Every structure is written in C-alpha cells, then in structure tokens.
C-alpha cells in the first residue's frame, strides 16, 4: 500500500496524564495512558480498536480531536498525528487553536452515551444545523434542506424536526448524533463505543446504518469498542490494545481466526457463545495486579505463557505474517 | 424434576400520572369499572403494563434464562419473585408465586425476610450501586450472616472468608477491610455474589449480572456462576440478560419476553437451532455470529420496542414482524404448544397445528 491511501497516520503517539498535586502528596504522578502507538486508517474503510476499559482507546480518540481540557488535568502529548487528505500532511498536534477549529469539520466524533452528548435544550433541527452554521457557508434555507436530508439518511422521520432529545429513545438519539457528525461533511468519523449503551436489536440497526452511510459518503471510520464480536463485523482492520499499547494488529479475519497474541485469544474466547475450535483453552490468571513495569511485557501478570524473558524484556510489535503484527515473544516467525 | 418455583398468571402494573405520559385519562377505561381500584392512589393514573399474565416454572437444579430487550418486563418479573416491587407506583394485580408450595405474595414482612437471602438470593446489574459506599465490605457481608442466629462472631468471620475465597477473591482478608470504591467492577460483583450466597439459598436470581463489566471479566463471572451451580446440589439460577450469547453458553431453558408477555419458552438448544417466534429469530439474528466473519448487514429487528402504556392491538410484535398477517393486527395469539416443553405465542404456529391435525 502506498501512502496516498491513508487518511490519517498516527506515529509514536504517547499521551500521559499528570495527576494534580493534592494536599498530601508533594509531587504529581504521571499516568501513561497511551504509550508509543502508531496506526493508520485507510481511506473509505473501517478500522476497529478493541480493548478492555482503561486501556487507552478513548484517549487516542481524544488526542485525534485534541479534545483535552487543559485546565482540569495536564496532559502531555508526544508524537505525530498526520492528516493526509490534502496534498501536504497536516500534523494535528502542532496546529493552533484557530487552525484546529477549521479542521474539525473533517473529523467528527460519535460518543458512547447519546443522551448526554445532545444538548437537551436544542431541538433536533438545531442540533444538526449547528455544525452547518460554523463549518459551511450555506444560507438558512439550504441548511434546513441539508438537515432534512440528513434526518432522512439516518432514518428519523422528518416531522420530528422540532422535537427535543428527551422525546427519543436511545437508538434514535444515537441516529441523531450520527446525523450531527455527518453534517459538516467529514472524511473521518471516530465512533467511541457507539453501541455499548444500546439494546441488541438497536445495536444491529446502528451498525447497519454506519455500514450504509460509509458506502454513501465514502467515510473512513475509526470504530472503538470493547466488544470484538461487534468490531469484527464492521471493520476491515483490527487493532487490539492493552494498557496503552497496541499488542496485535492486522486484517479482521486474520485477527479473529488466527490471533497470535494471548491477550487477543483471551478476548475472543471471552465472547459469550464462542465455540473454541480444536484449540487449547486459554487459561487466565484471574485478578492479577495490573501494575506495569516498563521493562516487562505489559500482559505478563495475566498471561499463561509467561516465562522469564517476558519479565525481563518488553516485546515490540513485529510483523509475524503478511500485514499481521503482534507484540509477543512466542508468536514470532 | 421437581418444581422449585411456580409463577402463575403474574400481572404487575405500574401506575403513573397521566401528566408525564402524554396520554389522556380516556385510555384508562378498563380500570374504571373493575374492582381492582381499591387503592386510592391508583385513581386517575395510567397503567403501565410491565408484566402481563406471565406463568412459568423453575425446576430444581436448572439454569433458566430470561431474554428480551430492555423494557420487556424481565427485571420486573424477577423482582416480583422476592416481592421487591415498590408500591406505589407498582402493584402486583394478580397471580401466584409458589416457592416450594408457599405463595410468596401472601407472606407477611417477617416471613418474607426468611425467604429473601435465605431461600432466594439475588444479584443486581450494577455492583457499584448495590454495595453501600460508606460501609466496609466486612460489615456488608456480616450483615446477612448475622441473621443466622446460630453463628457467633468468630464463625461469621470464618464463614465470610471462605465465601470470599469461594467466589475467587485472591486476598479475602484484605478485601474484607476495604471499601467498595477500592475494588474493581469484577471484584464488586464477586462480593455481591458472595453476599447472595451467604445464607445458602436454593435459587439465585441474577439480574443482568455482567452488563456493566468488561468482556473478560464477564467471562470470569459467568464461569464462576457455573462453578457455583456445579458445586451445589439442587441449586437453580434464574439468569436475566439481553445477551443471547450468555444464555447460549450456560442456560438449560430459555424464556423470551416481549411487551410484558412470554413469547417463547423452550429448551435452549432447540430454541437456538430452530427459533420459532419471529421475535426470537430477530434477536438471534441481531448477534453477529461469533464463529464466522462477514461484513454484510446484520439481520436485525426493525423499529423500537413499543411503549408499555400504549401497546399495539393484537400481537404486540406485529408492527416489527416481517411475517405479520391481517390476523396479527387484531387478535393476540395465545401460547401454543409446539412440543413437550416448547411454547410459542405466534399465529403462524396455530395455522400449522390445524393443518397437521
């Protein structure tokens, strides 16, 4: 693949939160949320990002949009996030606030909980119109037309134009946030656990909707979820994260059926209803402490394959098969 | 197999103020004439039909699953088993819940205390909400053990430690002395399970025990429940979940609920191999098959779950059903017997029955 196919390239991204000094402790702690992560998203495809809660998935999404609130907690970001949809790559992390605002229309996000991400005092029409006001030069009439077009696209009946968010169910609210994300005509949509808070039947509807919209608008999607069975349904590539690092990445089919890293195997075998096919069951050490030593494999405390080498060295992400990467000493070629 | 619990014609309604619903009082006709309006607070309120004529049995030593979308009446059914429906606004209008032959709904408050916890244990969805944040784990486990008058203080501590070890807590001694916020979600749920098991109940009601947990933790909790079930004789679990995968993994029998009514009951294997009710078929289709990969659309169920105040006429599922006929719009089907233990509430199978005869 050549570089032109990518829409965004993240190189060696490190994000750490500095905890505030409080009354009792004199020095502040540094929590490394994302540690040396590189990922690319190919134009027009969906990339899935899987991991347990607390592994840094959402921090990557926040970094891509620079959604950090500097006043509350200090954040340290290193690395590059390059947007490639124009001729020259733009490094998001080096932009000024003003330049970033101009760029936001190209990257949009859908949050997990639709009821808290929609303004309860705005009507649906206003919610979807708002990004059009700031990001496009359409006049009032054109904007309303666009809003109606988007409502139709996401499957909300047009007479709901002046309803308020509380009048909708969770699935419909998520449809509205999808419409809002689409309004400014983005190239990349980040979906941060978009279906986790929804019922199963509604989950299926929203995933179908995202797949349809991707075809219609030629969108690139970064799909973040803790549920690998959902991710494998929608994604072409899957990245598995554990404690701030990517530990396995590759095509969805390869990751799902031919996973190499013990953690990925654990994730997949944890799916309810998954039948292990003549494969050894992965025993897992329960309730292990998740303290991370920098010079050891981050998964070592929970891994059944762990040996001395895992405690002494940290495995790096290496290509183990064609376009299939894993960070484990025991899955090398 | 012996019946442990029999639920017969359970009907639980919640009565809400018409102000909050957007419906007028005229919808409330059926409640004007009938004698059930003994309670003054019901007057002028609109009924939300949460559970409507539900009957089923739980046998000794089985894991029974109840599945359905949120709002289908699963939790209300489970809560009424140990009489946990707040009244007002809820009211159990009719029905019997026979636990080992005794009707739970007719018991006094004191008699209920002997059932709750001792005979029927319960774990709830959100462990962080169910545990008291200002009390140490110690006092929360001791609380239920102290109800057993035979135990002295030493025994109580000993029993608590073994309970915690049984549910897979690696360091019981230090966990006893910690507060809920110091523990992870999975640990908290383990402690909830330990509390529920503390008085050796014969039925454990698990109301969405894994919904707020990570997938890997979910697997551990489910494995734990299965192990507990195996290590005890005559121990039954009622598992309420919207995750059909879980049901497929551990349940013996399944109940599918929709709109406050049972739509299908059957043995787990038969129900998954050959889902008869269109709703069951839809629910099964919603799950991306964990054993294959395809990037095609998921065969879900269109539409939303109906409002429990204003159900559609006839079969409650007909507006979302792809097989809906004219008949479905007008007449609500009964539960038809398909095989020995397999019941379906759908007109499609009545027609078949007639032609077979």
How would you explain this protein's 3D organization?
- The complex is a heterodimer of chains A (333) and B (357).
- Chain A contains 11 helices and 12 strands.
- By secondary structure, chain A is α/β, with parallel strands linked by helices.
- Chain A folds into 2 domains: 43-61 and 97-257, P-loop containing nucleotide triphosphate hydrolases (Rossmann fold, 3-Layer(aba) Sandwich); 263-333, no CATH class.
- Chain A is globular and about 65 Å long.
- Chain B contains 14 helices and 12 strands.
- Chain B has helices at 30-33, 74-81, 109-115, 127-130, 137-145, 153-166, 172-176, 185-197, 215-231, 244-250, 268-273, 278-286, 326-330, 347-356; strands spanning 3-16, 46-59, 63-67, 90-99, 102-103, 120-123, 203-207, 236-241, 253-258, 261-267, 336-339, 342-344.
- In chain B, strands 6-7-8-3-9-10-12-11 form an 8-stranded mixed sheet, with helices on both faces.
- In chain B, helix 6 crosses helix 8 (185-197) and helix 8 (185-197) packs parallel to helix 9.
- Classes of the chains: A alpha/beta (333), B alpha/beta (357).
- The interface between A and B is large, with 42 and 40 residues.
Brief synopsis:
The complex is a heterodimer of chains A (333) and B (357). By secondary structure, chain A is α/β, with parallel strands linked by helices. Chain A has helices at residues 57-65, 97-103, 114-117, 124-135, 140-154, 170-183, 200-217, 228-234, 252-257, 262-269, 308-312, and strands at 6-18, 30-42, 46-50, 74-83, 90-91, 107-110, 188-192, 220-225, 237-242, 245-251, 318-321, 324-326.
What is the string of helix and strand elements of chain A? EEEHEEHEHHHHEHEHEEHHHEE
Separate helix tally of chain B: 14
Distance between the termini of chain A: 22 Å
Q: Strand percentage of chain A, roughly?
A: 15-25%
Task: Characterize the overall form of chain A.
Answer: globular
Class inferred from helices and paired strands of chain A: alpha/beta
What structural category characterises the helix and strand content of chain B?
Answer: alpha/beta
- Specify the helix fraction band of chain B: 25-40%
- Main β-sheet of chain B, in a few words? 8 strands, mixed
What's the assembly state of these chains?
A: heterodimer
Record field, number of beta strands of chain B: 12
């Amino acid at each position: 693949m050549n570089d032109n196919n990518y829409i965004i390239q993240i190189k060696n991204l490190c994000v750490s939160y500095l905890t505030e000094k409080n009354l009792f402790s004199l020095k502040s702690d540094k929590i490394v949320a994302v540690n040396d992560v590189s990922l690319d998203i190919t134009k027009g495809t969906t990339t899935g990002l899987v991991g347990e809660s607390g592994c840094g998935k959402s921090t990557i999404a926040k970094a891509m949009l620079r959604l950090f609130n500097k006043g509350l907690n200090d954040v340290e970001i290193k690395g590059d996030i390059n947007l490639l949809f124009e001729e020259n790559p733009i490094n998001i992390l080096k932009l000024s606030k003003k330049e970033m605002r101009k760029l936001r229309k190209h990257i949009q996000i859908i949050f997990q909980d639709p009821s808290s991400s929609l303004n309860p005092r705005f009507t649906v029409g206003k919610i979807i119109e708002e990004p059009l006001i700031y990001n496009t030069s359409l006049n009032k009439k054109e904007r309303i037309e666009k809003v109606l077009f988007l409502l139709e696209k996401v499957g909300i009946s047009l007479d709901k134009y002046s309803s308020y968010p509380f009048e909708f169910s969770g699935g419909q609210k998520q449809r509205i946030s999808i419409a809002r994300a689409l309004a400014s005509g983005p190239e990349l949509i980040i979906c941060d656990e978009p279906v986790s808070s929804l019922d199963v039947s509604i989950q299926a509807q929203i995933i179908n909707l995202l797949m349809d919209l991707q075809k219609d608008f030629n969108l690139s999607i970064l799909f973040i979820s803790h549920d690998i069975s959902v991710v494998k349904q929608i994604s072409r590539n899957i990245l598995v994260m554990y404690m701030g690092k990517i530990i396995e990445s590759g095509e969805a089919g390869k990751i799902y059926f031919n996973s190499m890293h013990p953690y990925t195997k654990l994730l997949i075998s944890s799916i309810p209803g998954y039948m292990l096919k003549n494969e050894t069951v992965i025993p897992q050490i329960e309730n292990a402490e998740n303290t991370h030593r920098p010079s050891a494999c981050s998964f070592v405390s929970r891994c059944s394959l762990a040996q001395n080498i895992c405690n002494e060295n940290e495995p790096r992400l290496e290509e183990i098969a064609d376009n299939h990467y894993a960070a484990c000493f025991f899955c090398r070629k | 197999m012996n019946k442990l619990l029999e639920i017969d014609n359970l009907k639980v309604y919640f009565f809400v103020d018409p102000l909050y619903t957007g419906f007028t009082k005229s919808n409330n006709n059926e409640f004007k004439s009938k004698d059930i309006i003994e309670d003054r607070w019901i007057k002028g309120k609109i009924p939300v039909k949460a559970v409507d004529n539900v009957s089923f049995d739980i046998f000794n030593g089985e894991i029974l699953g109840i599945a359905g979308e949120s709002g289908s009446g699963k939790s209300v059914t489970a809560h009424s088993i140990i009489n946990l429906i707040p009244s007002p606004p809820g009211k159990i209008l009719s029905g019997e819940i026979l636990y080992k032959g005794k009707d739970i709904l007719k018991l006094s408050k004191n008699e209920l205390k002997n059932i709750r916890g001792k005979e029927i244990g319960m774990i709830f969805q959100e462990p962080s909400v169910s545990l008291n944040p200002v009390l140490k784990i110690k006092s929360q486990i001791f609380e239920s053990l102290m109800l057993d008058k035979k135990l002295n203080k030493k025994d109580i501590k000993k029993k608590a430690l073994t309970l915690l070890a049984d549910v897979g807590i690696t360091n019981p001694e230090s966990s006893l002395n910690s507060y809920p916020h110091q523990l992870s979600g999975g640990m908290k749920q383990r402690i909830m399970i330990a509390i529920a098991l503390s008085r050796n109940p014969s039925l454990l009601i698990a109301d969405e025990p894994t919904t707020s947990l990570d997938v890997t933790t979910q697997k551990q909790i489910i494995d734990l429940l299965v192990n507990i079930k195996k290590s005890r004789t005559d121990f039954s679990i009622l598992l309420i979940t919207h995750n059909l995968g879980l049901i497929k993994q551990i349940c013996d029998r399944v109940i599918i609920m929709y709109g406050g009514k049972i739509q299908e009951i059957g043995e787990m294997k038969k129900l998954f191999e050959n889902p008869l009710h269109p709703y069951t078929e839809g629910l099964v289709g919603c799950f991306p098959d964990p054993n294959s990969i395809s990037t095609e659309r998921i065969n879900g169920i269109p539409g939303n779950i109906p409002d429990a105040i204003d159900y559609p006429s006839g079969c409650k599922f007909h507006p979302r059903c792809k097989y809906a006929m004219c008949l479905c719009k007008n007449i609500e089907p009964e539960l038809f017997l398909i095989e020995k233990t397999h019941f379906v509430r759908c007109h499609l199978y009545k027609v078949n029955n007639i032609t077979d005869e």
